[in-house]
Amino acid sequence: MEVKPLTTEEIRLIRSETAGTLGRIHFNNAGASLPPDVVVQTMVDFLREEALLGGYEIEAKYRAQLDHTHELIAQLVNANRNEIALVENASAAWDIAFNGLTFQPGDELIVSEMEYISNILGLLNAQKQYSVVIKVISNDAAGNFPLTELEAAITDRTRLIAVTHIPSTAGNVLPVAAIGEIARKHNILYLLDACQSVGQVPVDVQAIGCDMMAVTGRKYLRGPRGSGFLYVRREIQDTLKVLFFDGRTISSVNQQDFVVRADARRFEWYEKNPAIVLGLQKAVEYLLNIGIDRVWQRVQHLSTLFRQRLQAIEGIEVHDQGDVLGGIVTFSATGMTAKDVRAKLATKNINVHLGLANSTLYYMNRKGLDGIVRASIHYYNTEEEIDRVCQELAGMA
Ligand SMILES: Cc1ncc(COP(=O)(O)O)c(C=O)c1O
């Protein structure tokens, strides 16, 4: 299907609806993206009304609208609304899914080398608690995830495949649908960290074939901080342990027993900040109106241009490798620490971030990287901003 590129006029409009683009160049979308104004306004309006009306009273008034959030998220990732739980962030989502599994000593978990620190800590904790075996699949020399190695690592003790769609500190996109095919062929559970991908790349849980997926709201979705969601495929919901309970986890209860509710909301706390839920909903709505295919096309266009420009600057080394690269651009500058580069750019109102060695431990250790500059692009960024950033970097180098 042909994708219609976002026009200059559309980008201008989108930027005029994003107050943060006025005074700064924001290349830290992988940290937290700039939200559209409507996301902020929705939350502010709700909080004002809440202060006047009362928390429970306003919640009752907005009940149907709040509930619509699960529906819209399901639409975005091609799931069912009953498969979505709203949580605070991607780490919470991943933890709820992963710790809901039951492991036996000797069970094998296969992961990519691109896992984020939260996931690595969960894995190490399971190693301590259950004596599971962790097998890490490294990228090949071209920076691609080696599917044949994944398949070769599977044994009759393999209990889980857990990979990250787009890592925190590198530009490559993992072939998650091909990984899903392998998981299905061998009947192995598949947990996907889509923290950096939902909102950047089309994500279709049916096409990918994952059983569980962890997502955050504040990054490429452009939603509020403190928002995120967990997808759990209907057929496996009953096989996951429920880790925490409140009165809405269950469909019925008596003094002897209870029945857990029949959807993924069993995995979320009932008590949450409704302003954040509405903010997330607006962000998803905003994205659906633009179209994720168009977003992904522009992210690829801008980040390809950015990498080309960076590679032409003497003293800059771009680290991203792989056949498919997205909006997370990582590099080092000779003679300067990543921290220095970030600080210097900040004085010019340019936001970039650091990729710390710990944050993607397996990958950074293997590559011998102890910290990189991460400049992450989204669709609302522009060619002119790329020029400006490269000019500044050339001046420093
Ligand atoms: C790939 C990846 N997974 C998981 C996380 C954790 O997300 P959160 O901070 O929303 O818990 C991050 C955060 O940067 C990430 O980049």
From TrEMBL:
Source domain of life: Bacteria
PROSITE patterns: AA_TRANSFER_CLASS_5
An MF annotation (GO) of this entry: transaminase activity
Cofactor: pyridoxal 5'-phosphate
Record bears the keyword Transferase: yes
Residue ranges constituting the Aminotransferase class V domain according to the UniProt record: 26-389
Pfam families (UniProt xref): Aminotran_5
UniProtKB keywords: Aminotransferase, Pyridoxal phosphate, Transferase
InterPro entries referenced in this protein's UniProt entry, alphabetically: Aminotrans_V_dom, Aminotrans_V_PyrdxlP_BS, PyrdxlP-dep_Trfase, PyrdxlP-dep_Trfase_major, PyrdxlP-dep_Trfase_small
Family, similarity comment: Belongs to the class-V pyridoxal-phosphate-dependent aminotransferase family.
Name of the protein in question: Aminotransferase class V-fold PLP-dependent enzyme
